[in-house]
Amino acid sequence: MFASPMKIINIDDCRVNDLLGLVISFGGNSPYGCACRSLRYRSFSHTIPCMIITIDGPAGSGKSTTARKLAARLDIAYLDTGAMYRGVAYEVLRQNVDTGDPEALLEVARGVDISLDCGPMKTTVRIAGQDVSDAIRSMKVSKATSAIASIQPIRDLLVSRQKNIGVELGSFVTEGRDQGSVVFPDADVKFVLDATPDRRARRRLEDLRVAGQEAQLDEVLAHFKYRDSIDEHQWEPLLKPGAAIRVDTTDMTLDEVVDELERQVRVRSAKSQPTLK
Ligand code: DC
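Output (structure tokens, whole complex):
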């Protein structure tokens, strides 16, 4: 049962614009626990068979923008799992919960009512109906998120939600740290994006400036180094030969990265099944 009736639309009806209405929500007072409860569209592409594509790697490697653009090109959904961790951290800060109290943090994670728009244009994130899409990207929330994402019971909860969301989404591009290794180990195509720390920090600084937030290069660089030390074990299994396709984006433009990923997906989809036309 879903709070809003789930609409599984005909494959010929599903366009990128339809995906703008692809909203998932979970937590809060939902009687459905961690299940998605307001998915309105299941996403299928016209040009590739049903596929799960994972993109993992460190902060600032270009994962989010690449994943969203790739999803738009393939006409499928985009799942921003970092936004889920950020949403929990935002709520922890809003409720002034002690970040040293794992039980209390888990309670917040269980109860927070988050909805994500999985359309490929922008991840609109709402908590209890309020748009927090920009607020969850602040440095303050980023720092709290790293601490919260290292608490295993919170990871278990969000991983379980991500798996459920995946079942509902159909074809999608998902992006995070552990998507190809832990959450969707059977994904059809797995990528790891990377770039030098300096390049990554400059990109994030630019994103923050565009969002009207002040930060210094040294501060972002130090924060990334701290986060890498916590996060990197999550995508390490994907660096083994044959586990994922590694793309170093240091000297690539965004379009070049998206072109390369799209090319790799289409090569693999052509090998796996006949395309849906
Ligand atoms: O991708 P991002 O910068 O929005 O991620 C925010 C934080 O959440 C970052 O500290 C890493 C963490 N994260 C995680 O541990 N696992 C994921 N699947 C996604 C994000």
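Residues 59, 81-82, 85-86, 145-146, 149, 176-178, 227, 231 surround 2'-deoxycytidine-5'-monophosphate (CB under 6 Å).
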